[in-house]
Amino acid sequence: MFDYYPEGWIIDTPENRAATLNISALNDACRDGKILEGRALICDSSHNLLVDLGCMKGVIPHDEGALGIREGTVRDIAIISRVNRPVCFTVTGFQKDADGHMTAQLSRRAAQDKCMTEYVRKFTPGDVINARVTHLESFGAFADIGCGIIALLPIDAISVSRIDHPRERFTVGMDIRVVIKSVENGRITLSHKELLGTWAENVAMFKAGETVAGIVRSVESYGIFVELSPNLAGLAEAKEDVVPGQQASIYIKSIIPSRMKVKLVIIDTFDYSYRPSAPKYFFTGNRIDRFVYSPPDSEKEIATNFISE
């Protein structure tokens, strides 16, 4: 299966620069139906996008701005929001403007249709693909999975350790890897936590007796849950004046694989604003059929099945 990339991935590649070098190269791209990228400069009052191609200007007419625009199933914000950002397109032709300057006619809709037909519609649960975060909501992150086609990554599928908002893990524009969780009626849902490692892989980064950094995730009557890594949290003994979201210095008291328990003691907590860093992935393949989070000797199994048994 040929890969199609999120918008912005190819704009600065030698191949894209060569294809937009001059009108002859653009003619070749037009003939071959090649998907290119340029930066959208302006969205005019009719919601046509003016695109900088380097050698000339290009225009994406309103109806060619995205899949679903013609039918009214996609709002114009899908076009307006691309200003000052890379957009993908195919070249459909050339014409002279009122001043006699040659302008390339472009279609983002055609590029997305090609991506949908040759790439997205072939997805099955368990496929691992590249994505780029486009915006964040309290219930999840939206990500470009190819040529500006957007899918939802629900908040509970981002990591094993629970978070209050996706901004605790991602920033807009961050490149990530995701798993296709489900494909239903053309709607794609993503997952992410299966790529962040099993309990055993995460706990192997720590040892009893160490004092390490953590993030307070929840304060309960019986103890305080502290995140040691996105896919690993432990339970600390109760301590006064601790609130969720604080950074913490944590002493690791014990690690019990059979119960998937990490017992902690909070040494100190403090408030600190941080910008999420790129995720660390333990799984680097292109396909995952079954993910078992729990260790083999655990009293219970925690697993994700991406294929029907």
Automatic annotation (TrEMBL):
SUPFAM superfamilies: Nucleic acid-binding proteins (SSF50249). Keywords: Ribonucleoprotein, Ribosomal protein. Residues 126-193, 209-240 form the S1 motif domain. This is S1 RNA-binding domain-containing protein. PROSITE patterns: S1. Belongs to the bacterial ribosomal protein bS1 family. It comes from Caproiciproducens faecalis.
